Amino acid sequence: MGGTPRRLLLARRQAARRSQHRRAFRQALRDIDGVNADEWTPRELRHGFVSLLSDRGVPLEEISRLVGHSGTAVTEEVYRKQIRPEIDTHNE
Question: What residue ranges do the domains of the chain occupy?
Answer without folding.
Answer: 1-38, 41-92
